Amino acid sequence: MSTSDRTRRTREHSAAGGRFSRYDLLLLVIPAAFLLALVGSTVSPLPTRAFVAGASVVGALAVADGLFVNPPGRGR
């Protein structure tokens, strides 16, 4: 029974018309932060480790938000 429920939720999510959920956006934030760190480290005289550290903080905040501040719940 849980398989059919999971399938129904997947179909409902894919039929949403391309809207991103909060968790989809959080998953996009993490690689975007590291891509910006890569670009920033190539155009700036600052060391690469400063940009990577900043991207790591942004990624950790995104994960913390998705897991602890606004956790996924049943029925979402």
TrEMBL record:
Annotated TM spans: 21-44, 50-69
Q: What is the top-level taxon of the source organism? A: Archaea
User: What's in the keyword line of the UniProt record?
Assistant: Membrane, Transmembrane, Transmembrane helix
User: Do you know which InterPro entries this protein is assigned to?
Assistant: DUF8015
Q: What is this protein called?
A: Uncharacterized protein
